[in-house]
Amino acid sequence: MGRFDPIREAVGDAFTEEHNAPMDIVYIEGLTGQTVIGIDKSELHDAQTVRMSLMIGTPSLRACTTDHIDDTINYAAVREAIHALLASHRVQLLEALAERIAQMVIAEFGAHWVKITLAKPAKFDDVDAVGVVIERRRSWSATPGLGWIGRGYVPQ
Description:
Its EC number is 4.1.2.25. Helix content is 31%, strand content 26%. With 156 residues, it is an alpha+beta fold. The protein has a single domain (24-137), classed as 2-Layer Sandwich (GTP Cyclohydrolase I, domain 2). The two termini are 24 Å apart.
């Protein structure tokens, strides 16, 4: 008799195959936008330029074979959503803004993994840019199905 695997039993082979599948990456490089961000008094009222690059991973894009936009991460839609977020967020730190972007890309666009580089290119006269790099992965509990069964009992 084989060992009982609660995750496989609860969610099925599709979960395991999907999470072990190679990642295809859609990327956006050098996206610039204007936003109010910072902790210095001079940054709290006037928009400043931010620059970002995103690597967005998803297991084996179907678009490679179907050639349909609905089978991939639509980078035009991601770009539009980021510009909307830049206009509406109310955070002060780049770290918090990068986190909001990452969570949006995962939740709204179905990404399984995202890496974001977010920078202020004009913060100081003597450096090219300052910023943060974050990497986030969709948690297994966000997967549709019965993945919540056994949560807390199975090591991750």
